[in-house]
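To: structure subgroup
Subject: Chain for Friday's discussion

All,

I'm putting the inputs and outputs inline so they're searchable in the archive.
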Amino acid sequence: MIYLKTAEAHLNIESQPGMSVNGVHGETYSFSEPTMIQCFIFYNNEIKEPFVLISADLIWFSSKMSREMRREIATLCETNYSKVALAATHSHGTQNPDPDFSYGGSCSDLSDFLKSAIREIVNKTLCRQPIQVSVEHSSILVPNISINRRKLAISFRPQIQFRVQSLFNARKFSDNRLDVVCFRNIKTGTVHGLLTRFTCHPVSDPENFKGSDYPGYFKRFVKSSFSEEPVVMFLQGFCGDVRPNFRRMPTSFKDHFLDWIIGYRFRKSRVGDSQNLAQKLANYALLAAHAGKDLTKPGCWDATSVEEPVILENSVSCGRVVDITTWNIAGLKLTFVSAEILSGFIPNKFLKSPHLFVGYTNGMIGYLAPWYEKRFGGYEIDGSRSYFGLTARISNDTCLRVSEHIIGASTIHETTRDK
């Protein structure tokens, strides 16, 4: 039997002063959907150690704070370190909480603010009555919302050359599945909680907006569609190279010429884009929620955490580790990775399985690309390194080892003990 406790609260990180969002500095901001934080605690009547999953509308959690809070929560909930996960939706309308990263600046007070919010939501959830639930999963393809943004095309600046640019690339893989896990009350048949996962950069709000971007609207739209108003949690997939497919429409001969030469370009996000994207996604989520297959396998109940050191191409360790944590909750598998990871890391054989691949969880080390993508360079490989304090590219060996851990996660049944 599976039992679930759920809770949510306003995070309101966008109200914290002294920081920029989306890399935009200044005090002239508008606000989108408020940021929230949710917590799910899963229990098995045969095993005492629960799984604790927290998701926040945040660009990422710092690795240092994630390790500290996972240990604290494990002690508080009398569980294992590997059974605690802190996931961020990667919403770009929020501030950078890691002082080691230069993206948009950071604030020393933000870490304490987040720790307090995490403690409050965990304690709030622990006070709830556990509900016996079934686990129903459905995966549905969502067209025309997200697209791969990495394309090799001719560039005229600073000289004529072929290089990877941020352009529409419909031929390149992007994970456009929406996973919906419905936790249904065994006694009443009502929905007690919804766990969702989609893969798309939350950059659908204009740059000067603070807030949760489309994940926040999506959760509210889905929640309000059920009379019982269940807690809805959003997990971000491997979206390092996937963004909304907002096309810049040509208005001149030059625009038409560039579309023909290099391909479709992205336009800037506009007011209303995040709501429209979220509503489309919510419509698909409701279809999936009513078409789920029961996965409940009470005997499947395990977790593992692996930390892979990040070695750069110059053979220097940057002092960081990639955390790869995998759960099996009653037949539902989740793999969490502490990186801004590109979609190519998802093994093809898992695309039709109830296996959720989640990035931006338990910390952040920067962009992580498959080894075969590195030769093309581009923002994710080279341009972003200065923001994350990386003096060289991440080595192929590190990328391959992370890939091996992700692929091997499907067969792991051992539990890593407290760290």
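Points worth raising on Friday:
The longest helix spans residues 108-126.
The CA atoms of residues 332 and 354 lie 6 Å apart.

D.
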